[in-house]
């Protein structure tokens, strides 16, 4: 079984910074794409940033230049969030997915709350 555990998040003033971390526990889950999504009140879940194990990172236009996604290996990823804005408020979910040998997997963490005050 694959389990994603998030840490970080909290309350910060606009212009501040937060760091979110996500680690994969359980069986080996290599060759994956890991990333972060967020869900703001009354809105649908949206991609914030994602990265494959072999490189290549995608960012939502709204966070480019402010957020940085890094990953140590197949099991841990860190989202550094700078210059936070009130519209960044939401619940942030770690995601890990892959398609291998014809089998697709998609795993989610339980989410961590980020609140940016104006």
Name the features:
single chain; four-stranded antiparallel β-sheet; seven-stranded mixed β-sheet; 0% helix; 118 residues; elongated; mainly beta; 11 strands
Topology:
Blueprint (H helix, E strand, L loop, with lengths): L1 E7 L1 E4 L4 E9 L6 E7 L6 E7 L4 E3 L7 E5 L4 E6 L8 E11 L2 E6 L3 E6 L1
Parallel strand pairs: 2-11
Antiparallel strand pairs: 1-3, 3-8, 4-5, 4-9, 5-6, 7-8, 9-10, 9-11
Describe the structure.
The chain has 118 residues and is mainly β. The chain is built from no helices and eleven strands. The protein has strands at 2-8, 10-13, 18-26, 33-39, 46-52, 57-59, 67-71, 76-81, 90-100, 103-108, 112-117. The strands form two sheets. Strands 2, 4, 5, 6, 9, 10 and 11 form a seven-stranded mixed sheet that branches. A four-stranded antiparallel sheet has the order 1-3-8-7, with no helix packed on it. β4 (33-39) and β5 form a beta hairpin. The protein is elongated and about 45 Å long. The mean pLDDT is 93.
Q: Report how far apart the termini are.
A: 40 Å
* Tally of contiguous helical segments: 0
Residue-averaged pLDDT: 93
Biggest β-sheet description:
7 strands, mixed
Which residue ranges are poorly predicted, with pLDDT under 50 across at least 5 consecutive positions? none
Fraction in helix: under 10%
- H-E string: EEEEEEEEEEE
Structural class of the helix and strand makeup? mainly beta
Number of beta strands: 11
Brief write-up:
This protein is an all-beta fold and 118 residues long.
């Amino acid at each position: 079984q694959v389990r994603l555990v998030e840490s970080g998040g909290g309350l910060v003033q606009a212009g501040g910074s937060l760091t979110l971390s996500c680690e994969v526990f359980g069986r080996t889950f290599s060759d994956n794409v890991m990333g972060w999504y967020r869900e703001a009140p009354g809105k649908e879940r949206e991609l914030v940033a994602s990265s494959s194990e072999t490189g290549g990172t995608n960012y939502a236009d709204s966070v480019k230049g402010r957020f940085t996604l890094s990953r140590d290996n197949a099991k841990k990823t860190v989202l550094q969030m700078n210059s936070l804005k009130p519209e960044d408020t939401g619940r942030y979910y770690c995601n890990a997915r892959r398609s291998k040998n014809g089998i697709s997997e998609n795993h989610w963490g339980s989410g961590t709350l980020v609140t940016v005050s104006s």
